[in-house]
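Q: How do we represent a protein-ligand complex in a form that can be generated token by token?
A: Start from the inputs.
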Amino acid sequence: MTTTVRGPAIEVAGLRKSYRSKAGEQIVLDGVDLVVPAGTVTALLGPNGAGKTTAVGVMSTLLAADAGTVRVAGHDVAREPEAVRASIGVTGQITAVDELLNATENLRLMADLNHLGRAEGRRRITELLERFGLADAARKPVATFSGGMKRKLDLAMTLVGAPSVVFLDEPTTGLDPRSRRVLWDEVRTLVAAGTTILLTTQYLEEADQLADSVAVLNEGRIVAEGTPAELKAAHDTGSLDDVFLALTEPPTETETENGPATTKENVR
Ligand SMILES: Nc1ncnc2c1ncn2[C@@H]1O[C@H](COP(=O)(O)OP(=O)(O)OP(=O)(O)O)[C@@H](O)[C@H]1O
Ligand SMILES: [Mg+2]
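Then emit the structure tokens for the protein with adenosine-5'-triphosphate bound:
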């Protein structure tokens, strides 16, 4: 069921989140504020390890915040997680497809979880398989799918319940250029129909193409926010890559020692 969202679809204020381990406490989100108006696309950018997935985790009720308020689709994530869950779709950075099932079975699982009736579920599954170019592979075990096919199925699964707010964590990583454009078109179609989208990406052209607003997360805070055009103008450049490089720091030596805090791709 799609809920009508009035006012901002996502409102984050003073969000703080740290992880505790034997090594101590790591503050990942240190007072994040973010507002995403309903029916728009916001791209959350930031270096590897900046906390994008953590923020998406809190906004999608998978992780509890340490402090701050987060409202999604008009509901507080801490006090009304069920209502939030009923309004959202989440595509994680790692696919959630079940390799032992085929594509149709994976989608049916989502249709059942969303309480779609048999006929409605079947209609929706057929539509999504077509939209994502998976109709011919519908009955093949997902274990035999390529990485890109799994990603597309994952996205289709996110959309089964027609969510009003969709979180896409690096949705096009590993997709070929044509498939990436299919996803972009899909995002545009969803937004035209009133869906709100928060996406993370390391492909800054993607943010430039899709996002009404870009927010850059660095060292626990949103360090810049605006339309792609505004951010580029502010940095006197035609490329969001330049904006990203200017606003974010290269990994420090300690981060490098602790793991792969390097960028995933050469942005230059
Ligand atoms: N469950 C966890 N326990 C401990 N530390 C964690 C956990 N999840 C994430 N972290 C740490 O929190 C920081 C932020 O991680 P997160 O996955 O949110 O970053 P990200 O911006 O999504 O990065 P990427 O671009 O690589 O996907 C990293 O330093 C990471 O090591
Ligand atoms: Mg991430």
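The pocket of magnesium ion (ligand 2) is lined by residues 52-53, 93, 169 (CB under 6 Å). Confidence is low (pLDDT under 50) at residues 257-268.
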